[in-house]
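Example S7 (structure tokens).
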């Protein structure tokens, strides 16, 4: 596996209160499995080490502004969040990054959109391309939702995409593993944080 840290970015998907915490909109479904998995702590370590290696971290948040932005009610998921859109306003407590993720370095960026893919509905693909970034490493929740959607979308846009397999989680282990198996075929492959960091921090990639 060859990865050039200078051409790589981490997309940190939906590390927000509505997804991760019990009080969040999806808390009843996701907070317990996320807590049991230990994924937050692993992702923090991965982000911190990748950032120190010079890799930019881009956080994405699902938010719904007063005019609904680019929200389209074309799935059950989008209809559900549209019905509860006050909880997804950009300044609502639930849309904030969880405190563990909200200590941002000057290189970090936060992108809001109204799509399941973190690469849809914003200028993020162009922002990445303008900086010569062609490889994306994905962390986030849930594996079978925003992570899988973003991974497939990024691959179709021409990026080399690796999901960080131990820095993503889903509501059920079986769903999580099935999604990773699909993504092993549909992307450049899922990799562990340790494997990716070994390449990113190697003197040969500096």
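Recovered sequence:
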């Amino acid at each position: 596996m060859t990865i050039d840290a200078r051409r790589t970015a981490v997309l940190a998907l939906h590390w927000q209160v509505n997804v991760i915490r019990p009080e969040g909109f999806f808390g009843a479904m996701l907070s317990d499995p996320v807590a049991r998995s230990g994924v937050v702590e692993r992702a923090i370590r991965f982000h911190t080490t990748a950032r120190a290696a010079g890799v930019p971290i881009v956080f994405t948040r699902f938010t719904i502004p007063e005019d609904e932005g680019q929200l389209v009610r074309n799935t059950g998921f989008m209809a559900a969040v549209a019905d509860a859109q006050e909880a997804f306003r950009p300044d609502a407590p639930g849309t904030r990054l969880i405190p563990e993720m909200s200590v941002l370095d000057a290189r970090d960026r936060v992108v809001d959109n109204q799509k399941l893919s973190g690469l849809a509905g914003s200028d993020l693909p162009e922002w990445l391309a303008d900086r010569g970034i062609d490889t994306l490493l994905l962390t986030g929740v849930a594996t079978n939702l925003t992570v899988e959607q973003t991974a497939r979308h990024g691959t179709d846009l021409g990026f080399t995409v690796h999901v960080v397999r131990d820095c993503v989680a889903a509501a059920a282990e079986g769903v999580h593993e099935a999604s990773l198996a699909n993504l092993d075929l549909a992307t450049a492959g899922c990799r562990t944080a340790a494997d990716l960091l070994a390449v990113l921090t190697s003197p040969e990639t500096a």
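Notes on this example. The chain has one domain: 5-205.
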